[in-house]
Specification:
14 helices; single chain; globular; two-stranded antiparallel sheet; TIM Barrel
Length: about 475
């Protein structure tokens, strides 16, 4: 049995003042100075944390917003002097999809490498947009052997990238049929290129170093190679070069050290794949297909052309690109997956899905919908304390000052984040009774979809919901 996959981590505190969601407003003028003050009894010890924070504060541009929102002090204060307030800076983070809650959760994971624990109180609507309308069936969590990261059973998170042969030709004990190259990675995740809007030169070195530390693969634009001071023998096994339609081919001695390459879909993919295979026969080649109006059908057609890997990519919010009424990435994955099954081609191709993967549960849900693995980029950027603000690239001052981060800080935060994602993957798999991540693919029996449940429960009474 292979050794368990483990990522070495250590806490990496934030460089900037924390932006929390809640703070306590204390109207001290009527305080009775109770000896058993409810603030001192805080189970999270936020009262003493606040005193230390104020004592060490260098400027007054930020207040203490690090309350866990349990409401204990607000409810128990005998003079009703305390009230919970929401930080206005918190509400400015992200956008309608990359919500402040997602950003704050990602910051916490990048700092501690631990699975986040939510506080008490109302958690929001029962169902929401995108992945929030999908739930995983974790009924196996009641079994004592399902112990996830605590190690009482072996759970494999590894997946394969490449073409799986549907049959083998044997001559005695010898396999005589040609075998396609297969690349195995320790979890269903690859690191995509940072969007141009957020790209900074030092981010490439951080992403590549993170891929090495976690054993994953990072997509890198071939036009940016070589990187100064990079040890090719150390880093190239964890790099997948992305070749745009106008990108020149890299030297053979470089390409032969990489296990994976990706090309832009330009209508001429077969000849470009052939050119790569001529240089490095053992390389796995993926074709990147943007999920525009015709993107799903193009991905399905490519599978019929014996393509090994197809990387389908929605926009950063997981929506269909350029559509007035866009589909969400989970629905597009399911459509591509079902079509390939109907054509008898699903096991012949690896599907990588990207766009809108913001949380570890999205990684699992994307695989349950039918992808073999997912790609991420913005979560790593958020892990570096990025606010995903709208002013990026508009010559405004970056509130996170990402241009000033050091390599050790950046690699530490992104490594912690991926480790936390892996732990949550293993926890989810244990709760679902799954011991191999490969078996997650397309297993919708382990998932529940709001639209289907609503139709089954209320469709006969009220009719079906109109689709956009």
């Amino acid at each position: 049995m292979p050794e368990k996959y483990h990522i070495a981590t250590k806490p990496v505190p934030p460089r900037r003042p924390r932006i929390g969601k809640y703070g306590i407003v204390d109207w001290r003028e009527d305080c009775a100075r109770c000896h058993n003050c409810v603030k001192k009894a805080c189970v999270y010890d936020r009262h003493r944390d606040e005193i230390k924070y104020i004592r060490d504060l260098e400027s007054v541009d930020s207040l203490f917003f690090d309350c866990m929102g349990c409401f204990s002090c607000v409810q128990d204060c005998t003079k009703n002097l305390l009230c919970l307030a929401i930080n206005p800076e918190y509400e400015k983070l992200g956008n309608s999809y990359w919500t402040p809650e997602i950003i704050l959760t990602t910051w916490a994971q990048a700092e501690t490498a631990k699975i986040p624990v939510s506080g008490a109180g109302y958690g929001g609507k029962f169902s929401g947009y995108g992945f929030d309308s999908m739930w995983t069936d974790m009924s196996e969590i009641v079994r004592p052997t399902r112990d996830g990261i605590h190690g009482r059973e072996y759970i494999s998170s590894a997946v394969d990238i490449g073409h799986n042969s549907s049959f083998l030709i044997l001559n005695g004990d010898e396999v005589v049929s040609p075998l396609s190259p297969i690349l195995s990675i320790p979890m269903p995740l690859i690191i995509d290129r940072i969007p141009d809007k957020y790209a900074l030169p030092k981010l490439d070195a951080i992403i590549i170093e993170t891929a090495v530390k976690t054993g994953l693969i990072a997509l890198v634009d071939a036009r940016k190679w070589p990187f100064a001071g990079v040890d090719a023998d150390k880093y190239l096994p964890h790099i997948a070069f992305y070749f745009a339609a106008d990108a020149a081919m890299l030297p053979g001695e470089i390409l032969k050290k990489t296990p994976l390459a990706e090309i832009e879909e330009d209508g001429n993919v077969k000849s470009r794949i052939h050119a790569l295979k001529q240089i490095h026969p053992g390389i796995v080649v993926a074709v990147r297909v943007e999920l525009t109006a015709g993107g799903m059908q193009r991905a399905i057609d490519l599978a019929d052309e014996d393509i090994e890997v197809i990387h389908i990519v929605a926009d950063s919010n997981g929506r269909e690109i350029g559509s007035e009424h866009p589909m969400f990435i989970k629905d597009m994955i399911r459509k591509v997956h079902r079509s390939l099954i109907e054509n008898g081609r699903r096991d012949d191709v690896t599907i990588i899905a990207g766009g809108g993967i913001a949380l570890p549960e999205h990684m699992v849900k994307g695989v349950l919908c039918g992808a073999d693995l997912v790609s991420i980029e913005l979560p790593l950027l958020v892990g570096l304390e990025c606010h995903l603000c709208h002013q990026c690239g508009d010559s405004h001052t970056c509130p996170a000052k990402i241009q000033e981060i050091s390599l050790s800080y950046g690699v530490g935060r992104t490594t912690n984040l991926i480790s936390a994602w892996h732990d949550q993957l293993v926890e989810l798999m244990g709760a679902m009774g799954m011991r191999d991540a490969r078996r997650l693919r397309g297993d919708v029996g382990r998932a529940m979809f709001f639209e289907q449940l609503e139709e089954e429960a209320f469709g006969k009474l009220f009719g079906n919901r109109l689709q956009a």
